[in-house]
Structure formats: structure tokens, C-alpha cells
Write a structure and sequence with these properties.
Layout: H1 11-22, H2 38-47, H3 54-60, E1 70-76, E2 81-86, H4 88-94, H5 107-110, H6 114-121, E3 125-128, E4 141-148, E5 155-163, H7 172-197, H8 208-214, E6 231-234, E7 241-245, E8 248-252, H9 254-265, H10 272-279, H11 285-301, E9 309-310, E10 315-316, E11 320-322, H12 323-332, H13 336-342, H14 354-374, H15 377-384, H16 393-402, H17 410-427
Parallel strand pairs: 6-11
Antiparallel strand pairs: 1-2, 1-5, 3-4, 4-5, 6-7, 7-8, 9-10
Helix pairs in contact: 3-7, 7-8, 7-13, 10-11, 12-13, 12-14, 15-16, 16-17
Length: about 450
């Protein structure tokens, strides 16, 4: 039956089927395996590095899948499912194909599937219905993306979204890719913080992840592929910047954060006059900039690899990944939920530098515009409850329009609109006192 159907399948699926056939896997049922006890599963979970970043998955994917007909699974590097959450009814149905915590869903065990094939190919993949090798999975579709170690580049595990056709929708793969990236980024931050707290190894806990970042691990074998990573600067929701470059991570002064933000934003470079105008409208700003640039270069020279700033015009010698640009990229790809989760607040909110104010406004307004025009009711309501939109009447009214007439959430939205209207009236602002819709 499989051989007859091959003519219409994608090449990567056909190649996966051929690998599955070579392993003599029965497509009518998964290969038997020893039952994994609850204690053994708990031990695997406790010692797995991804356990430290599960809140990222909870925030970006799981809590939004509970009523969406989808489940989210995290597996280890061998394809064993360690955590599954999401729609409860879907979880119960998935037990029929043995898609349960502790089960091995590698290609060698069940044949072609999103989690197993993603691990085999080491890239994100979508498998729809009859593309699965196992017949029990033919009523399911899934999207999976490998998760990599941020230091060595080796595979740590896989994140999978399983359900009906929505699980392989056009926006699902970029959404899961962004979630995997967020997990890797959070893991990297945790390791760097652990290394800094340990004083570069003095009194460090005997934790393998921390030891590797601190420089105690052996050099990876030549066969180990290390994925290149750019320096990263975090400036959203912070008055200072946070730079990560190689094994170095540290706070940036407000002025240095402004300079790096502007140079990362204007990648082709800025003349001294233009950069000084974007930083300040005060006299002698060019002279002040040159002095500040000397200090910043000394700071960056201490990182490994060094991060350089060229002159005439001022420009970064190597790419720097700005968290603000990441938000815009996610919005462009349609990963609105992950973009909102990545947006930690306004860019350098205490800065009054003209260029920073302009970028801050652009990011904030773009996020607001996209969510107002294209967000689901729940996602728009999540945005409305953020500090940035808490008093945005247009956003709250849009939430009310999108919510179903019988939604229990309408009452709280109407109450919030009433509070906004009341404050507008007290301040004498125009437009106050309009009639509110009924919940």
C-alpha cells in the first residue's frame, strides 16, 4: 500500500518512508518497546536541560492551545516525548496512536512523523495525515522543529504541535520555529547568568550546562557542528542594554545601549554628524560622541569574539541581533503570538535620544497596528492587558467587537472601557462620556 502511494508524495516523505521500510517497521502499529516507568520518566525530565525553559513554551504555545484542538509536545534528542500539554480532549484521542509522555517517536521506532523526521533531518518539518508511515497517525497532522544547544549547536530535543489540519497551517511552522528560537535564547541567557553568578567557575555548582559555559568542558570533537551565533543586544523593556557575545554577557550603560541600538538599526552605517543628531540635539554632540565611542570600543574589545565598530561611517563590523528587530521579523512572518511574547516593553523607555524615540515609536505602533488588524480575540485581549495598551480605548473597543456575544470575557472588557471613559471625563478629554456597549 505504501509503495503504491509513493508517486504523489513529497520527496522528503518518500525518503523517510524508505528509511522506515529499511528498519522493518510495521506501519500497522509502532514497534514494541519496554514500558517506561513514571520514576524513569521523571528522572529523564529532571536531568534534561530543556526542563529549565518550559515556561517559554507555556507562555508562547501551550496556554493558547488548550481550546484550539492542538497539543504541544517536547521530546528529547532521541525522539522520546517528555512533556505533552494542550487540549485535553485531543490528548486523550492521541493516546490511541500511543502519542503519550514517555513514548519513543523517533523514525527508528514509528517511522515518518514530524518529531522523528525533524530530528533525523535536523530542520523544521510538517507531516500531514497519510504522509505518516504509521497508519494509526493518518488522521493527524503535525509540525515539529529541532531545538539546539546554544553553545555546541547539537540537538537537544524537538518541539511538536499535533492536531488536525490547523497543525500544519501556513503560519504554524514559523510559529514553532520562533518558539524553538525563544527556548534556545532563554537557555543561553540562563547559562550566561549562571556563569556570571559562579564567578567564572569559582564555587560553581557541578552543573554540566553551567560548567560548559564557564569553560570547564572539554573542547568539542571536530565532528561536532557549532552553529555561528551573532552578538545579541536586548533593549526592550529595559533602561539599559544587555549584550551577549560569545561567552560574554553584561549590562550596557544607557548611552552605549543607545549607540549599539542605532548602529544595529542602521546597518549601512551612520556618519558622526548623523549619529550625534540621533543621540542628542545639544551643542558639541559630535565631540561627546567621539569620546563615548572610545569608551564603548574598549568595552567591546573585551568580548570574545571582539565586536568592532568601524569609522567613516560608524558601522558594526559584524552583525548584531537586536531584540526589537526580532519582534518586527516575527510580525512580518505572521507569528503574532510569539512577537507579542518577545516584546518585553518599549525600547529603552527612559531614553530621550531622538533616534531612539523614533525607533521606539515605530516598533510600538507597528505591533499595535498588526494586532488591531489581524489578531485573534484572545491575542488582542492579551495585548490590551499589557502596560502599553492598558489605557488604549481603541484596542479595548476592538476586543469587544471581536469577542463572541456570549463570551464571559465581555463583562471585564466593558468594565475596563468604563474605567477609561471615567478617567477621560475626569480629565476633560474630548470624546469622553460616549455610551458603552453592553457586555
Amino acid at each position: 500500500m505504501l509503495a503504491d502511494a509513493r508517486g504523489g508524495v513529497r520527496r522528503l516523505v518518500q525518503e523517510s518512508w524508505e528509511r522506515s521500510l529499511s528498519l522493518h517497521i510495521d506501519p500497522a502499529r509502532p514497534a514494541p518497546e519496554p514500558e517506561l516507568s513514571s520514576d524513569a520518566l521523571r528522572e529523564l525530565r529532571d536531568r534534561h536541560p530543556l526542563s529549565a525553559v518550559l515556561p517559554v513554551v507555556q507562555n508562547l504555545l501551550i496556554r493558547h492551545s488548550l481550546e484550539s484542538g492542538l497539543i504541544v509536545a517536547i521530546g528529547d534528542e532521541s525522539g522520546r516525548l517528555l512533556w505533552i500539554d494542550g487540549d485535553r480532549a485531543v490528548r486523550r484521542r492521541a493516546e490511541g496512536m500511543l502519542f503519550v509522555e514517555g513514548a519513543d517517536w523517533s523514525e527508528r521506532r514509528v517511522g515518518t512523523s514530524a518529531p522523528g523526521t525533524a530530528l533525523t533531518l535536523d530542520h523544521g518539518i510538517q507531516i500531514q495525515r497519510a504522509e505518516h508511515f504509521n497508519w494509526l497517525a493518518h488522521s493527524w497532522s503535525c509540525t515539529a522543529v529541532p531545538i539546539h544547544d546554544p553553545d555546541s549547536g547539537s540537538i537537544l530535543g524537538v518541539i511538536d504541535v499535533t492536531g488536525g489540519d490547523d497543525a500544519v497551517g501556513p503560519q504554524t511552522l514559523p510559529l514553532v520555529e520562533a518558539a524553538a528560537w525563544a527556548m534556545e535564547a532563554e537557555l543561553r541567557i540562563q547559562r550566561l547568568r549562571g556563569r556570571n553568578d559562579a564567578g567564572f567557575g569559582r564555587g560553581a555548582p557541578r552543573d554540566h550546562a553551567v560548567m560548559r559555559v564557564a569553560g570547564f568542558a572539554q573542547t568539542p570533537a571536530p565532528s561536532a557542528q557549532r552553529r555561528p551565533t551573532n552578538a545579541r543586544v536586548s533593549v526592550l523593556g529595559r533602561d539599559t542594554g544587555f549584550l551577549e557575545n560569545g561567552l560574554a554577557s553584561f549590562e550596557l550603560s544607557p548611552r552605549h545601549a543607545e549607540i549599539l541600538t542605532l548602529l544595529a538599526w542602521y546597518r549601512d552605517g551612520l556618519t558622526a554628524d548623523r549619529l550625534s543628531q540621533l543621540l542628542s540635539d545639544q551643542p558639541n554632540s559630535v565631540d561627546n560622541l567621539r569620546a563615548e565611542m572610545v569608551r564603548l570600543r574598549k568595552v567591546l574589545d573585551g568580548t570574545e569574539p571582539p565586536l568592532s565598530i568601524a569609522s567613516r561611517p560608524y558601522r558594526l563590523g559584524s552583525p548584531v541581533e537586536l531584540d526589537a528587530q526580532r519582534v518586527l521579523a516575527l510580525l512580518e512572518r505572521g507569528a503574532h503570538r510569539v512577537a507579542l511574547g518577545t516584546y518585553r516593553g518599549p525600547l529603552l523607555p527612559a531614553s530621550v535620544a531622538p533616534g531612539i524615540v523614533e525607533i521606539r515609536s515605530e516598533i510600538s505602533s507597528r505591533l499595535r497596528q498588526v494586532l488591531l488588524s489581524d489578531a485573534s480575540p484572545d491575542l488582542l485581549l492579551e495585548y490590551a492587558r499589557s502596560d502599553e495598551a492598558a489605557w488604549d480605548e481603541e484596542v479595548w473597543r476592538a476586543c469587544l467587537e471581536l469577542l463572541p456575544p456570549r463570551s464571559p470575557k465581555r463583562a471585564s472588557v466593558v468594565a475596563r472601557l468604563g474605567k477609561i471613559e471615567s478617567d477621560l471625563a475626569d480629565s476633560g478629554a474630548p470624546g469622553a462620556g460616549r455610551n458603552l456597549p453592553q457586555p
